[in-house]
Amino acid sequence: MAEESDLEKTEPASPRRLEQAREEGQVPQSRELSTFFVTVTGVTALWMLGGWMAERMYGLIRQAFVFEREMAFDVVLMLDGFHRLLSGALLTLVPLFMVLLVAAVASPIVLGGLVFSPKALGFNFGRMNPIKGIARMFSVHGLAEMVKAILKSLLIGGIGAMVLWLSKDHLFDLMVEPLEVGMPDFADTVAFTALMIALSLGLLALMDVPFQLWQYHKKLRMTKEEVKREGKEQEGDPQVKGRIRAMQREMARRRMMAEVPKADVVVTNPTHFSVALKYDADKMAAPVVVAKGRGELALKIREIARENKIAMLEAPPLARALYAHCELEQAVPATLFTAVAEVMAYVYQLNYWMANGGLPPDPPDELPVPEGLDPGAPEE
């Protein structure tokens, strides 16, 4: 049962999934909304330009009924006259066509936004498969589209027929009106009919847009396994990230251990902490921590120090303070200068004794570690 639930697309599409769908040209679309926008834009254009277009068409019709005798005997003149009338009619309709073109291009942006996808423009042989085409025709989506088309035809046809039926007396009156009066009147009637049809398309769009959005997001739903896989791809596999961090720590530890043979002294707590210090008076303003560790790492630092004959000093409070308050490759804080200075002085004396002999120096005792810097100090 758990495997079946993992395969069910129950999770909403992630932002990345939605972005991938947009890149492939998949955005929510509503034909009814596009048709509504184009129709409303056309009706508005007719309402605003109807008078001008009616006057232009009136003039063209008057020219069409003017017949010169020469045209009857000259085909060229007849064709030239027809060309002038046709050009005039097309130029009259150009503003309307341009407005409709802009509306047709801009209407999909309202729902799906502006999208340009080269993938969607690519040639897809699967779209030419007749079997898949027939399957789409008889699918649930195809049947739903067919039902919508039938209902839309009945609605638009019914409203158009109703408006014409109610206006039949007025339309018959247009036959006896003068042409200059009848043309604007007829244009107003057409615009009113188109407006009623546009309103009916608006009702269809209001019903279709939520359905298309629901269907779009349902199509892009993801399974729980897909959500997990996408999360791993975006944030990285926790196991891989853990291995990377472990490798980084190991590399840092190796670099640190390589610095131990270059140290001047290793300050230790006998069993828990080790801190390696180095000081070069020509290059450094204060001693620098080149390595530090606790537990097994502290033992490893002491082992490398012994192998390379690096001086070691047992000073538990100072070792704990240096471990807690000093970072690698950073100078020791000013609050520990006095204690570290005594350690470095002891190291110089020890090196001098080893080189020249004599009495060995006494290791410093009761190093001055300020109160509050030793995390292992007993509370009073």
UniProtKB/TrEMBL annotation:
Location(s), subcellular: Cell membrane
Membrane topology type: Multi-pass membrane protein
Transmembrane helix as UniProt keyword: yes
Main location: membrane
Domain of life: Bacteria
Matching Gene3D superfamilies: 6.10.250.2080, secretion proteins EscU
Keyword field contains Manganese: no
Bias-annotated ranges (Low complexity): 369-380
Gene Ontology annotations of biological process type: bacterial-type flagellum assembly; protein secretion
Region (Disordered) location: 1-27, 360-380
Biased composition annotated in UniProt, kind: Basic and acidic residues: 7-25
Chain ranges passing through the membrane: 33-54, 75-94, 100-125, 146-166, 186-211
One GO term describing the cellular component: plasma membrane
Coiled coil start-end: none
Keywords, in A-Z order: Bacterial flagellum biogenesis, Bacterial flagellum protein export, Cell membrane, Cell projection, Cilium, Flagellum, Membrane, Protein transport, Transmembrane, Transmembrane helix, Transport
Function of the protein: Required for formation of the rod structure in the basal body of the flagellar apparatus. Together with FliI and FliH, may constitute the export apparatus of flagellin.
UniProt record similarity statement: Belongs to the type III secretion exporter family.
Protein name: Flagellar biosynthetic protein FlhB
Organism: Parazoarcus communis SWub3 = DSM 12120
